[in-house]
Amino acid sequence: DVKVTQSSRYLVKRTGEKVFLECVQDMDHENMFWYRQDPGLGLRLIYFSYDVKMKEKGDIPEGYSVSREKKERFSLILESASTNQTSMYLCAIATTTGSGGYTFGSGTRLTVV
Amino acid sequence: AQSVTQLGSHVSVSEGALVLLRCNYSSSVPPYLFWYVQYPNQGLQLLLKYTTGATLVKGINGFEAEFKKSETSFHLTKPSAHMSDAAEYFCAVKEGGYSTLTFGKGTMLLVSP
């Protein structure tokens, strides 16, 4: 089974800092996703990527950017962190196209103070 | 556009009682449907999925769900709740191809002794 690793479980950053959240898979899947999860709002898609150097905006891309220089790594970047970006961030990969679901990492709980 | 509605942000049952978590979807094409479970401070884990074929789908931990096209529903059930079932459950829909997963807002299942 594929493994999806998010580098940090808990992160505390200051307002205005540039924040990098890393996600690494141990296989060769093309499609990778970043979601944020907030109580009562479920999971909302921020960005996704279907190949190296390719990216697509999701439903809530404002305040975020992404980088995918290698197939196995997909990074989420908060250019200037704000308190309203305090959230749980979940990385996922699509293990197959079409009917396949996603495999998720364990999540990074980011607090911006 | 696809969307998912989960009825009830919280559902409480007694240990041994029937679990019923409701999910309705909208999709312009025959959908792929998923249920995920999230335990505290963890990522999401796939419980079961419907793609094509048999409309009653069995998943892990004794859960099952039935796809009812006429009702646009995909409710999750388990005959007898266990304390370890206490978690948050997410229903998700995908329209196939390269579309992304759209999640409901989640239902927290509380199990009392």
Description:
The complex is a heterodimer of chains A (113) and B (113). Chain A is mainly β and 113 residues long. Chain A has no helices and 11 strands. In chain A, the strands form 2 sheets. In chain A, strands 2, 4, 5, 6, 9, 10 and 11 form a 7-stranded mixed beta sheet that branches. The mean pLDDT of chain A is 93. With 113 residues, chain B is mainly beta. In chain B, strands 2, 4, 5, 9, 10 and 11 form a 6-stranded mixed beta sheet that branches. In chain B, strands 1-3-8-7-6 form a 5-stranded antiparallel beta sheet, with no helix packed on it. The radius of gyration of chain B is 13 Å and the shape is globular. Chain A binds chain B through residues 4, 9, 31, 33, 35, 40-43, 45, 48, 50, 58, 90, 92, 97-99, 101-107, 109, and chain B through 9, 32, 34, 36, 41-46, 49, 51-52, 90, 92, 94, 96-98, 100-106.
Any descriptors?
heterodimer; A: 113 residues; mainly beta; seven-stranded mixed sheet; globular; B: 113 residues; six-stranded mixed sheet; 11 strands
In short:
The complex is a heterodimer of chains A (113) and B (113). With 113 residues, chain A is an all-beta fold.
Q: Low-confidence segments of chain A, ≥5 residues, pLDDT <50?
A: none
Biggest interface, chains and residues, is: A-B, 26 and 26 residues
Helicity range of chain B: under 10%
Cα end-to-end separation of chain A: 37 Å
Whole-number average pLDDT of chain B? 92
The general outline of chain B is globular
- Oligomerization state of this entry? heterodimer
Using only CA atoms, what is the Rg of chain B?
13 Å
Number of helices of chain A: 0
The residue ranges of chain B in which pLDDT falls below 50 over 5 or more consecutive positions are: none
- Continuous helix count of chain B: 0
Mean pLDDT score of chain A? 93
| Helix-strand string of chain B | EEEEEEEEEEE
**Sheet/helix structural class of chain A:** mainly beta
How many strands, which pairing sense, and closed or not: the largest β-sheet of chain B? 6 strands, mixed
Shape of chain A: globular
